[in-house]
Automatic annotation (TrEMBL):
The lineage of its organism: Bacteria, Bacillati, Bacillota, Bacilli, Lactobacillales. InterPro entries: Solute-binding_3/MltF_N (IPR001638). This is Amino acid ABC transporter substrate-binding protein. Residues 39-267 form the Solute-binding protein family 3/N-terminal domain. Residues 1-23 form the signal peptide. Keywords: Signal. Pfam families: SBP_bac_3 (PF00497). PROSITE patterns: PROKAR_LIPOPROTEIN.
Length: 276
C-alpha cells in the first residue's frame, strides 16, 4: 500500500509539473504574439474639430475613432498616434517616421504621386465663408483683391496660389499663418480678412461651437468627389490592403455611419462603390 501511495504522489507531482510547463508555455506564446505586433504610428496635426481634437488630454474625433476601429482587435498591428505640426505630417511620412496620417486630407495629384491613399472615410465638400454683411463676395469669381488667411501646403492654399497664377492682374491677397482653423475663423469673424475657403463640416462645426453667427456659408462647385482619406507612406502596400479591407467592413457593419452621426451630427459617408 505504501508503494501505491508513493507512486500516486509522484504521478500527481508529475501532472502538476506538466501543468506548470503548459501554463508557462502558453504565457510565453502570448507574450511572443504581443511582441511580434508591428507598431503603426499615425501622424496628425490634432485639428480641425470634429475630425480630430483633444478632450481631457486625449486625441479623439471622427478620424481618430475610425482609425482606432480599423486596428481594434488586430493580431498583427498596434496603433499609436503622434501629434505634430502640419508640415511635420508630410515630412514624417517622407522620412518613414510615420506609417500613416489622418488630418482631414483630401485628394491631390501631387500627394498621390508621393503617398498611398487608403479608401475614403468621409464626404466633405469645400465651401466659401464670408461675413453676412459682406455682399461683395458671392462666389470664387469675387475673391480678386480680397484677403484670406491660409496654412502653407494645404489644399486650399494650393488652390488659391493657382488662382493667383491665372488671375495675375487681380490676385487674391494671401496671408500665411500657422494658426489653427478655429483661430482663423475667429479672425474672419472679427473682420481681419475677407473670406475663407475650407471644408463644410469643419466650417459649420466651428460656427456653431464658437457662436460665429455673423458668418455665412456659400456652396462651391467641385469637379471631383470631395472625400477625406487616410494617407500612407510609400512602401506601406501591405498596410494599405489591411486598412482598405477594414474600412469596407466598417462601412458595411454600420460603424462608419455611427461615428459620422456621433461626430458630425449626420451621415457624411462616401458612396459605397468608391470604397471598394
Amino acid at each position: 500500500m505504501k508503494k501505491i501511495v508513493k507512486y500516486s504522489s509522484l504521478a500527481a507531482l508529475g501532472l502538476v509539473a506538466a501543468g506548470v510547463l503548459v501554463a508557462c508555455s502558453g504565457g510565453a506564446k502570448k507574450e511572443g504574439e504581443a511582441a511580434s505586433k508591428k507598431e503603426i504610428i499615425v501622424a496628425t496635426n490634432g485639428s480641425p474639430k470634429p475630425f480630430i481634437y483633444e478632450e481631457n488630454g486625449e486625441l479623439t474625433g471622427y478620424e481618430i475613432e475610425v482609425v482606432r476601429a480599423i486596428f481594434k482587435d488586430s493580431d498583427k498591428y498596434d496603433v499609436k498616434f503622434e501629434k505634430t505640426e502640419w508640415s511635420g505630417v508630410f515630412a514624417g511620412l517622407d522620412a518613414d517616421r510615420y506609417n500613416m496620417a489622418v488630418n482631414n486630407l483630401s485628394y491631390t495629384k501631387e500627394r498621390a504621386e508621393k503617398y498611398l491613399y487608403a479608401a475614403p472615410i468621409a464626404q466633405n465638400p469645400n465651401v466659401l465663408v464670408v461675413k453676412k454683411d459682406d455682399s461683395s463676395i458671392k462666389s470664387l469669381a469675387d475673391i480678386g483683391g480680397k484677403s484670406t488667411e491660409i496654412v502653407q501646403a494645404t489644399t486650399s492654399a494650393k488652390q488659391l496660389e493657382e488662382y493667383n497664377k491665372q488671375h495675375a492682374d487681380n490676385p487674391t491677397i494671401l496671408n500665411y499663418t500657422k494658426a489653427d482653423f478655429q483661430q482663423i475663423m475667429g479672425r474672419l469673424s472679427d473682420g481681419q480678412f475677407d473670406y475663407k475657403i475650407f471644408d463644410k463640416i469643419g466650417v459649420e462645426t466651428v460656427i456653431k461651437n464658437q457662436g460665429l453667427d455673423n458668418l455665412k456659408v456659400i456652396e462651391l462647385p467641385s469637379d471631383q468627389q470631395p472625400y477625406v482619406y487616410p494617407l500612407l507612406a510609400q512602401g506601406q502596400d501591405e498596410l494599405k490592403t489591411f486598412v482598405d479591407k477594414r474600412i469596407q467592413e466598417l462601412y458595411k457593419d454600420g460603424t462608419l455611419e455611427k461615428l459620422s452621426k456621433q461626430f458630425f451630427g449626420d451621415t457624411y459617408l462616401p458612396a459605397e462603390a468608391d470604397i471598394k
